[in-house]
Amino acid sequence: MAISTIPWGRDLPHSTSDEAEAKNWGYWQNRINRASLVMLSETGIVSPEEAKIIALAQQAAEAKQSEPGAEPLTDIMPLENLLIAQCGQMATLIHTGRSRQDIFATLNQARLRLSLLDFSENFNTLRERILTIAKENTKTWIPAYTNGVQAMPITLGFYCWAFLASFERDFDRIREAWARVNRSALGAAVLANSHWPIDRQRLAELLGFDGPVVNGLDSTQVSLFDVPLETAGIAQNVAIRITTLMQDIAQQYSQTRPWMLLDSAAAYGSSAMPQKRNPGVIQKVRAKASDVIGAAQTSVLRAHNLPLGMYDNKESVSEDNTAVFVQAVHMLQLTNWAFSMLKVLPERALEELNSDWTCSMALAERLQQVHAVPFRVGHHFASDIVTLARDKGYLPTTFPYAKAVEIYSDVTKQLGWQDGALPLTEAQFYQTLTPEYVVSTLQGAGSPAPQSVEEGLKQIEKRLSEDQFWLSGKRDSLKSKDALLDSLFETLTK
């Protein structure tokens, strides 16, 4: 799908992927029929002769559905009628031990499963993109902000690392949720199983699930509340941090000379103001993230007051209703595209740091660490320097060293400290106020020092590789189960 960079207009896709769009209700009803017939034959509930007749009818019904103009399946009865038209009432044996309840619960769980995998794949693509930016900028000094004010110098690599670390936690949640998502309701019938020896474990395996949701009532009714809402919460959680990332880039555009912005190809011009280049995709991502959060909340509100057995809740986070994951995949694709167009100007970022006194705390720390000056004495000294500098318009690179010596003498006298001579040479004084010195000398695990960031990013890369392998394994497993089901079903027709 072509991604629009302008914030207006609707270009939301119908599903999380082409595969998800193809694997609609009709697809899953047919897969469930195939799995049911294989299991019924294996357990002897239907005879080989009956299984063959019904299997051939199922093949004919699937062919009928593929004809131009065929009505899409939205219920089990039209498919059953197609089977009856082929082989009479014998076709209804395929419905042994089943109900709309367990069929709809299962097919929606299968669709949710694929939506979660599609979300995970797009999420990993974004993680990889941000990791690349981080690795390229371990020595790109930038300001960090608290309360909207420059606070400390860090690096862009360190900033990206923070979000990448949080995204690891999101993938932890995906992995943990998978154990609950990839469970089948099929064979529980309405909610209490049936009088037939239905092999629910086998049904689950044939459809690629890890097993059944054991309790019948839980499988067709109760789990349809918490499991979809759990996954919707994952998408919502990611969306909240996506808005933060985009907001940080958007704030750059309030400056006349940003140090981080999108390539001009990612902007559109104003219809009236010739100087403007609007970063529409940033606003579109933020709006899309809000759509994800809103859709997730809608799912909660739709579910919170429904009685058991209410069909509407069975697809509350799927394509047909709130479409949490359709919105979320679109959000991730837009975000990835935005980051692919990101331009970083290190010299301008350094200029921004040097235009304020973001490194002043380092004076107090160096005086304490190297010269045993109590921190509060050093802090008072640095604070008085900043006060005078802002009054006179001095920058860290232009502040008179002689004034620093004078201020230190005054502060030590005022606080009763023993020695009024500034123990920093002129070169040391100016060095201490540079972002490179401040960041490079920070210590401890998780600091923005380049070596620390590089080590951290190695672990991020390792974990991302593991998550990509996990995702690939889940997709491969589903493909192999699909092939197994088709092979076993074809055997019934011989």
From TrEMBL:
<comment type="similarity">
    <text>In the N-terminal section; belongs to the lyase 1 family. Argininosuccinate lyase subfamily.</text>
</comment>
<dbReference type="GO" id="GO:0005829">
    <property type="term" value="C:cytosol"/>
</dbReference>
<feature type="domain" description="Fumarate lyase N-terminal">
    <location>
        <begin position="86"/>
        <end position="294"/>
    </location>
</feature>
<dbReference type="InterPro" id="IPR022761">
    <property type="entry name" value="Fumarate_lyase_N"/>
</dbReference>
<comment type="pathway">
    <text>Amino-acid biosynthesis; L-arginine biosynthesis; L-arginine from L-ornithine and carbamoyl phosphate: step 3/3.</text>
</comment>
<dbReference type="InterPro" id="IPR020557">
    <property type="entry name" value="Fumarate_lyase_CS"/>
</dbReference>
<keyword id="KW-0028">Amino-acid biosynthesis</keyword>
<dbReference type="InterPro" id="IPR000362">
    <property type="entry name" value="Fumarate_lyase_fam"/>
</dbReference>
<dbReference type="InterPro" id="IPR024083">
    <property type="entry name" value="Fumarase/histidase_N"/>
</dbReference>
<keyword id="KW-0456">Lyase</keyword>
<dbReference type="Pfam" id="PF00206">
    <property type="entry name" value="Lyase_1"/>
</dbReference>
<dbReference type="InterPro" id="IPR008948">
    <property type="entry name" value="L-Aspartase-like"/>
</dbReference>
<dbReference type="InterPro" id="IPR009049">
    <property type="entry name" value="Argininosuccinate_lyase"/>
</dbReference>
<keyword id="KW-0055">Arginine biosynthesis</keyword>
<protein>
    <recommendedName>
        <fullName>argininosuccinate lyase</fullName>
        <ecNumber>4.3.2.1</ecNumber>
    </recommendedName>
</protein>
<dbReference type="GO" id="GO:0004056">
    <property type="term" value="F:argininosuccinate lyase activity"/>
</dbReference>
<dbReference type="GO" id="GO:0042450">
    <property type="term" value="P:L-arginine biosynthetic process via ornithine"/>
</dbReference>
